[in-house]
Amino acid sequence: MDPPEEDSPTKSLLMSEDKENGSTSIKLEDDDDNEIYVNKDATDFPDNDAVDREPSPGSSLMKTESRKSSESYGTFSPDVNKGENTVPRNLTLAERRKSRRKQREQFKLMRFGSSSSGISHFTSKCVTFVERSLKQAKVIKQNHFRIWGTSIKKIEGQLGSSVCTYFKVLVWMLKINVVCMILGLGLIVGPGGYMTWHHSQTKETIFNKDDLTCNNPNFVNGTGFHVEAVNSVLQLFTGTGWMENTAMFYGWYPTSNLTTNMQGKEKTVYYFSLAYFSVGCCYFAVSLLLMLANLSKLFKKSAAEQLEYKPYSSVVFTWDYNIADTEASQLRSVSVIQSLKEELDEDEQGDTKRSLLTQVGIFFLRVLTNLICLAAVIGTVYLYVKEVLTESTESRANSTDSCGQLINEKTLEIGLEAIQLEDLSSHLAAFWKTYSASIIVSGSNVLFPVFFELIGLLEMYQFQSTRIRVTLVRTFIMKLFTVATFLYLLYRAAGPSGGITEDWQTEKNTLFYNCWEDYIGSQLYQLIMIDFLVFCAVLLFCEAFRSFIVTRVAFLRDKIGLTKREFNISTEVLDLMYKQMIFWAGFYFAPLLPIVAVIEIIVIFYLKKLSALTNVVPPKTVVLNHQSSATINGLFLISLLVVFVFIGLVIFNFQPSQFCGPFRGYKRFTDPLSNVINHATVLKKFIIDNLTTTAVLVILIILVLLVIYYYKSLAASRNVTIELLKEQVRNEIAEKEEILHRTQKNRSKSLSNEKETDGFYSKEKRKQLKRKNTELHGFANLRKSDL
Amino acid sequence: MGQGTSAYDQSELAEFQDLTYFTKREVLHVHKRFAELAPEKVKQHGRNPTLTKEEILLLPELAANPFKERILEVFSDAGDGNMNFEQFLDMMSQLSSKAPLETKIDFAFKIYDFNEDGQICENDLQKVILFLVQPAVTGATLTSDERNQVIKNSLITDDQIKKLAQKVINEMDMDDDGSISYLDFKHGMSKLNGFEESFKVTL
Fold first, then answer.
1. What is this structure's pTM?
2. ipTM for this prediction
3. Which of A407, A694, B25, B131 could form a disulfide with B66 if both were Cys (CB 3.0 to 4.6 A apart)?
4. What pLDDT is stored for residue A580 in this prediction?
5. Candidate from A120-134, A348-362, A436-450, A516-530 with smallest mean pLDDT
6. Nearest-CA distance from A613 to chain B in Å?
7. If pLDDT is split at 50, 70 and 90, which confidence band does A600 have?
8. DSSP secondary structure string, B121-137?
9. Nearest by Cα to A34 from A76, A79, A97, A71
10. Residue A72 is nearest to which of B102, B175, B182, comparing CB atoms?
């Protein structure tokens, strides 16, 4: 026996292929030749607890843990390749139990025989105890703390794994928003609230927002308690009125810094403005980091699959065993057959399927439909912009009141009419005026996907997957457009108040909004609320109502073939992405928005779960999981970029409101940061000044590009190596067979009269090798597109 | 927990935990589901009752699976689908999400190898495809002749099935012997990302 070495990892105890490991191990065998290596210093028989095994990453889409390969129960599946093609023998439970017991006894004998010194015994026990408890904590965390784990399993059972993608995206969004919420609460709301309370205790003058609420007239004019109540409720949805004075929006937060009196000198402990600014940046940084981490893991997984794309095997051998519902399995079976048949058709016919005339016709048709889509989107956007802009310019035509607000003749008119007539139409007009922007955006989000799907059907694509992808791209672009327009309008609306002018400490009355950040915040909040209401309405009417009809009215189901609504994963996930975009945009202007976001996500999850289990039918075409999750991540990144650009523009081009918010008194948003830097020590200032020059930035960018290039070429060279190795393997197998064939032939030459061709490889074999080689070079694997 | 704790004590549960991929709690849960399938038998025998194939197929997670009978055949001792609790536990453990990829591949290979000759040949593949079609035909189980008849008439032709089987073999077969050996299968499935996620049954 070698002298014992230092490290003795507990989990290596069970690996039968443990020879590389440096620790000393003893081999225990039993009658059936099942071996186990036991560490010499082990004090207990190595039980194969759940702690020592890593659970498989089946749980979440975006979270993929690296798995240790090899672990069966170590000893219990010996790779006994007795013949050429035997399957490794797995013992049954009873047999395993028998051999385990024998090993335990052997271990006891061994332990009993040897003696070990007290201290080393004690220390090794301590070490193993600590390691085990850590692992146990990890297992508990993975098994019991998976967010919404049981719900997702239930949904998976009924609708299949692809629908689960949606819910896993929800889980992941929840995580990001919770992180943002903790950041915001801890660093902004907390100190801000404390400071406000502190100041109110000392009975200083109010230093938060020294103005009245400005952003909207009341909906129901009149007096009385019920009017107040209705107004308050409505204002909860618009984010104006009483909501403006709460911690929800930017304007509430104080500008001073948290100071303490230490040794008679005032020392600033917490720079609030700086904190607000940095937390705003952190939201983006944190979200970006989380997404990149996930994306990199996903890429690793899907890259391996891209190399060997097996369209048939991947469908035939991956029946989803999670499905527990007969109806769902029926649908899945239909879709499997359909995709197999499609694949077969494509292979056989290729692009000679359609005549030249048809192809040209289809080409023009598609150009036309694409133009129609583009026109529809641009048209909507244009109308929307025009309407909102004319409204606001009209409203600004006349004088402003002390709020510097939109109140003008037109609004006053409506207000007056409301007082006099209490007419439904004037209510509607006022309603429309407030909510027009949000309603248009939410409405287009719901209607456009349907429109795009119809157009997709019209375009006569050969394969469903291309059609789905095209629709997805169109919907994504549409959503991006609408949100970008919305943000642009906000930018323009806030512009006049926020622009940096010469005399930047202007008076109130010439501004349009006293607190334009509040305005942006409340508009975004309003959008979120309306979007949520539209979401609920769609759930109620399109899904619940339809399923109700389908189940009760047999006529529709049997004759017309109306079914429950299909769960369209791509549209739903894009909807989630859109919501997240709005959240991100609003985080900076409304520090309590993360809480709203978290609550909304939780509510959406439960509503959707309910709907998915009862009112919805799984989708007909199945989208491959890992490819789609990488795409989804990519889309989220793009949306983050768009929002980031918007916030960046706002921060750098606009001047903070002078009368509200934590940046009162500053000329720019970046002033607090500059102030702190300027007051820092000379050395720090020197470093920071030099670090932010363009030269350094250019060097950094070049470095990053170089690193990317290096990794890319590394990947390419590895691909080449893989191809070469594959070829080698095939050649060797062919050689082996040829040798076998020859020896057999030599043996039976006298007996048989078969003719023999010349050459080491027979003609057929050469042809086969050649075919395999061309396949390796990817020609046969290219998907013949129909565009 | 009723029948669970009365049938097995702590040391046996610990042993089960050692021998399978389940924790003690999960073992009890599996026992509960097992007992629900045939409460009478479990009450009578308690320790290790043997349930018939039909009774086990009452489990909804298995009932929706087109390969259900094959799964049971692979895991039962006698090869006819009747199994006792230990075999059931073993089966569920290998189908759980904690089982490593190699175990699953091994298990899948056994399922898809209908004639149990150690290779997945063309016939086996054709049977696999037929089984895949079966849920689409009707929800009920048909005999194999009826099934083939219906399938030929409606969803997929014999010719297409043959071609599909051939294509799968072309893709997966690396040593060019016309059928998929265990090594071919293992190599192919370990590269397929969807395999691991789809090949599990959770109770």
1. 0.69
2. 0.85
3. B131
4. 92
5. A348-362
6. 16
7. very high
8. -HHHHHHHHHHHHHHHH
9. A76
10. B102
